[in-house]
Amino acid sequence: MRLPNVTTLTYDQAGHKLKQTDGTGATTSYAYDLCGNVVSVTDADGATRTAAFNAQGKQIGAQDANGK
C-alpha cells in the first residue's frame, strides 16, 4: 500500500539527492557532475532537463525537456 503523503528520498555518499519518490510512486531522478552541480533532472514522466557548468561552477548552458 502506498501512502500519498509520504516522500522517499535517496542520497549518495556525498549527500547528493539521487531520487525522490512520492506516495504515488512518481519518481524524480538527479545526476551530478564531479563538482556536485546538478546536470540533469528526470521527472516521473521521463522528461529530462539538463545543465552544463564551466570549471568555476558557473552555469553556462541549460536545456529543458523540449530541447530548448
TrEMBL record:
Superkingdom, natural source: Bacteria
Family matches, as NCBIfam families: YD_repeat_2x (TIGR01643)
Entry protein name: RHS repeat protein
